[in-house]
Write a structure and sequence with these properties.
This protein is α/β, with parallel strands linked by helices. It has 2 domains: 7-17 and 101-232, 3-Layer(aba) Sandwich (Rossmann fold); 20-98, DNA polymerase, domain 1, CATH 1.10.150.240. Helices cover 47% and strands 11% of the residues.
């Protein structure tokens, strides 16, 4: 792949700032709440199945997670969950929404530096209110030329976003933690993709990594490795 790189896309959650750790902690508290009724394994399984069913209704994000927790609680307690316990779930969700945005290592230094040389796109899925709020609290908004908050990230969505912004796939690099959402769809349309794993991955985002020699695919240990990768790619021009 020899085309010049002309734009870089970034995922937000677990690429620029911590996110899945909030959901993991929330699920831990939810399990504790329902511990008198069922085992942790059964609670986890039922919640995950409920989340998947509800993606079509609520999409990704904390609000959908909260509604799925409430639905799961009603199901697993056979309707015996109390109003007070529902209130605890709602309080948990509100605390997640209001949680401070903690940037991942390298983001504060590298994103502003790259913005001086490339148009940067933020391409993230989730609840519009929540994602806009996190971006505002992150202090990173000024560095992105384009911001797209979408319901899903697949090949068709990336094709539409790049066409809207006048960017050819071969001139685009996507940086993200999710193989399913950030890497594989971009490679499928002829773009480049840099995978930076996060410590925790929601099982719905799990996928097999491409072979190391796959055209356009790069695996990075952290964002600190991105500038060195860019130096190996054809220059922006």
């Amino acid at each position: 792949m020899t085309s010049a790189l002309r734009a870089i896309g970034f995922d937000a959650d677990d690429t620029l700032w911590h996110n899945e750790s909030l959901f993991s902690l929330g699920q831990e508290k939810f399990r504790a709440l329902l511990a008198p009724y069922h085992s942790a394994e059964w609670i986890n399984r039922t919640l995950y199945e409920t989340e998947l069913r509800n993606l079509a209704h609520f999409g990704y994000g904390i609000k959908g997670f909260a509604l799925s927790m409430i639905e799961t609680a009603v199901e697993l307690t056979e309707g015996r969950i109390s109003g007070s316990e529902i209130g605890q779930i709602l309080a948990l969700a509100k605390a997640m929404v209001a949680a401070p945005v903690e940037l991942l290592p390298g983001v504060e230094e590298i994103v502003p530096r790259l913005a001086q040389s490339y148009p940067l796109l933020l391409i993230t899925k989730g609840d519009l209110f929540d994602q806009e709020g996190k971006l505002a609290r992150s202090g990173l908004g000024e560095y992105f030329t384009h911001i797209d908050i979408v319901r899903e990230k697949d090949a068709d969505v990336y094709t539409a976003i790049l066409a809207k912004h006048g960017i050819a796939p071969e001139n685009f690099l996507m940086v993200g933690n999710s193989l399913r959402s950030d890497i594989l769809p971009v490679l499928a349309i002829g773009g480049r993709a840099a995978h930076i794993p996060y410590a925790i991955t929601w099982q719905h985002e799990a996928a097999d990594a491409p072979e190391p020699a796959t055209n356009g695919f790069h695996h990075l240990a952290s964002l600190y490795d991105l500038p060195a990768l860019l130096q190996t790619l054809p220059a922006n021009g």
